[in-house]
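Write out the 3D structure for:
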Amino acid sequence: PDHSTALEGPRRRIAIMAASATASLALAPGHRAPRVLPRGRPSRRGGEVTTSSIRRQTRTRRMSRIRPAAAPKPSSSSSSSVSHDDANGGDSEEDERPILISSVDFDGETPELEQLARSVVFIKPNFSYTKREIQTDLQRIFDTGKFSTVAPMTVDTRDGVALTFKLVANPVVRGFIVKGCDEYPTRLLHQAFKPQFGKVMNTNVLEKEVTKIRDWYEARKIPAEWYSVVINPDGLLEIAITEPRIGEVQIRFLDRKTGEPVVGSTRPEMITRHLKSVKPGKVLHARMVEDLQDLIATAGLETATITWAPRRDETDGQLHLVDTIINVVEKQSAGFSGGGGITAKGLQQGGLNALVANADFFRRNLFGRCQTLTARLEVSPSVTGGGRAEVDLKVTHTDPWVGDANRTSRRTYLDTETNTLEHIHGKTEPALGDDDGDGAGGAADLASDDGPKGVFARRNVAGVEYRRPLAASWTGTFAATYQRASTHDESKRECLHDAYGSPLTFSGHDVDTSFSAMTRFVYEGRGRDEAQLVLTAEQALPIRPDMLSFNRVLVRAQRNFHVAGTRFFVAAKGGNVIGDLPPYDAFSIGGANSVRGYPEGGVGTGRKFIVGSAELSVPLATDTLNGYAFFDVGSDLKSGASVLGDPGGTRG
């Protein structure tokens, strides 16, 4: 066979064969086994072993993806020998017969390499060993990583078999060449291979560094097709990594119902701007999935998928290029919905007081730029059934990306809304048994009989808001707002004082007007124990003398903790207002979103406030029943008297 030498004789044949993955030592059938000493016992006198035939085949280590450039391959005959043994039920009986080793020598290029091999070999002269034990020592030499070839050579002597290991060291590393490794940082390559320069190549170190390269690609989900490290005889490491790249990119619109190609209304550039990782020449990367998710969420699409079509590169004919088709399904472009009804109490009053109605309209993908326009109209009767109906209008235009490099979104809105102030400024109902007005009613006695029972604040707001990501988990918002606020009673009549005679507007007129600029920073943590931090600062600018001027600061923080199936939630918030403060904008402490167990404003109404909450949730039945325990605390920090009319102090 290749790389072997055979000598024939009349008595027996001993073969020590070394291949890429096995080493075998066999006695030829039909011959009497040699007389040997018991295993592990030294020889007391010379033996009479004569070798009739010695077959030697060089064993060469070939590592996966790391190989010498001219490493010999195992011969077909050695492979047949191993397969023959396996076919007969594993190692033959001769595999376990001990052979007397008279001497062990090492023939290496340098004394240092010989000493390295000698330090890992367990075989000693004048002891008996089986071929399996010799094979194990052969593997130990290879495991040092310093040798490309180890050839066990045997010579028969009077005292036994003389064993010599012919050692061929790996080349000395003098440099490395990188091919196709564009995504992997050059800095990491220098850190990995530069320490090997001028030294005999250690395949163990090389295998470790190749594993790091593989793990780096897997962590970033880059499907590198293959990679290899080839050691040239000149000592150059050739590192080759094939990174599949994107060829052509096409956008295909599909029908929502049939899935057939249709003509889309979205401009192609509105889609491709989201696909930073899906561009011609880019490496296939897991970030493409994130780009698709961002495209669906931001561009208002129903679905978006990717279809691959590998093709051969014209330069080398390899399948390095992957053509990409983005399949897009658009949402319904426009829609209208509405609903309504009548109230029995309103029918008694007549007119529009009986009408309850709402209408919604939306238009998506305006001008093919993924912008959205929404409008909502609400009509509701007055609270007491008297007066005119309440009409609220909300119109919003949203651009998810204005086109800058910072992914800034814009929202322009017009909003009218009405909020009740009844709990704080409305008339308190007298206690039971005090209907004739003879008894003392506490705060109810302070309320004027002619005062309003219901008090409402109506705001007409127009503004524009810009929002953009700032850093990991952080977003920033800037808004400019113009607001006109007024107060009225349950019959929609102008109301400047509450049930206790305290003023409801800061200006003393029927309308408070303000123009303000607001900045907000939000941190939203990811993961199991999500956290949130919101910092808000608002400054009202008195463009005209009759406009409000104030500065408002709000801070809110919360976090969830999950331990052994239970959830522990903690939250805190606080705020302060400096300058003009209408009573309807004062901080109300108490209620479901503040200090639970108290009505809205039941703890106080102030210019400053602080509220803390702790809540424990324990599952009592899987996905059906939870138990809750909470503790809330809040205070107006003795700022209630600084609010016009001191609403909290007036109610007691």
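Residues 132 and 158 are 23 Å apart (CA to CA).
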